[in-house]
Design a protein that fits this description.
By secondary structure, the chain is of the alpha+beta class. The chain contains 3 helices and 6 strands.
């Protein structure tokens, strides 16, 4: 897993609406941020997915500028921190395995590399179900 490390990241302090974390590998910058409960839940689901599948989060919370630079949608869920992109060290796990970490209402999109024919897997785009 190549993301925020440490089990302490996903401990939910009683009575706290937001959760502060420090992620030294968050899109290449050292930062501390406060997460909403929805963002915290997404993080707590993606960490075990990455640990068990050899996945790496390549994009999570984006600024509008970064979203434009990477060709993201105008109303991307990345802008609110409600989506993550995950790549895998080997072949991607079957979709049912990915969905099992996020619940039945999560949206998992298998993205392909642009301009490839036949299509070549690029990453999973996972949106929060909350």
């Amino acid at each position: 897993m190549n993301f925020c490390s440490g089990d302490e990241t996903c401990r939910n302090p009683p009575g706290r609406a937001n959760h502060a974390i420090t992620c030294p590998r968050f899109e290449g910058a050292n930062l501390t941020t406060t997460l909403s409960p929805r963002q915290f839940a997404l993080l707590c689901n993606v960490l075990p997915l990455c640990a068990s599948t050899g996945g790496t989060v390549t994009s999570w919370i984006r600024s509008a500028g970064r979203n434009a630079r990477v060709g993201g949608c105008l109303h991307s869920k990345h802008l609110t921190g409600d989506a993550v992109d995950v790549v895998y060290d080997g072949p991607p796990p079957i979709l049912d395995v990915v969905r099992s970490f996020f619940g039945p209402h999560a949206r998992v999109l298998r993205e392909t590399a642009p301009g490839t024919n036949p299509p070549v897997f690029s990453h999973d785009h996972i949106e929060s179900a909350l």
